[in-house]
Write a structure and sequence with these properties.
Elements lengths: L1 H48 L17
Length: about 70
């Protein structure tokens, strides 16, 4: 009985450690997602603020050999 209890305590300890690691990973990923969302928002604002003269036409994208 004591051995089973010890085994369960060991498994619980490993499970708690894994859960802590996963929580830290999710937290870091959430921070990264928030940074990327902010960067995307800034890029969209820059695109919306571009003057029509700055906007490139599709003809500018044609390769030189055409």
């Amino acid at each position: 009985m004591d051995e089973r209890l010890t085994d369960l305590e060991v498994k619980l300890s490993f499970a708690e450690h894994l859960l802590d690691e996963l929580n830290r990973m999710v937290y870091r990923q959430q921070l990264q997602i928030e940074r990327l969302e902010n960067e995307l928002r800034q890029v969209r604002q820059q695109m919306n603020q571009m003057q029509p003269a700055e906007a490139r036409s599709l003809r500018d994208e044609i390769p030189p050999h055409y």
